[in-house]
Amino acid sequence: MNDSKTLPVIHARTDQDAREMYRVEQLDLEFSNGERRQYYRMKTRGLGAVIIVPMLDDNTVLLAREYAAGLHHYEVGLPKGRLEHGETILEAAQREMKEEIGYGARSLEKLTHLSLAPGYMTHVTHVVLARDLYPEWLEGDEPEELEVIPWPISDLRSLTARDDCTEGRTIAALYIARDYLRKESLND
Q1: DSSP state, residue 154
Q2: What is the pTM (predicted TM-score) of this model?
Q3: How far apart are alpha carbons 156 and 174 in whole angstroms?
Q4: Residue 35 domain-assigned?
């Protein structure tokens, strides 16, 4: 694994209006006890997102190492991305895998969905398990080629102990998929 990759240079920082990506909505609520409150939530403009757990074999998950602008470091995580208009969850998962890690899957299964911050955001990410992989690249929107890292799904403790694997959706999706696969193998 290439841990010494040079970070991108930040040439400028400018605050932007977030209305293009999010809209703040005010809710005037009355609870069953008669109490009234105002809440605010960020409504995403998109259709949600997918995060994919691509299994190369029964114990090997493929991860991607990519630049994370929010923390300005390289992060190891699962392939993920936004749903495009007219795309199903499984179509988006297939496209994102091909763009980010260079694999497609003959078997895709939606396991669940996750929220980011349900107290104030409407965003949902769908967790998809991908199996029976085959190599296939699609041109994506990544500024640089992502490093693909095979990792034993049985050793998530070592992965999540790393300083560069911190994203909650990745960690949750890996544990959900690992438990699903374990239960499935016990039922066989």
Answers
A1: G
A2: 0.89
A3: 8
A4: no
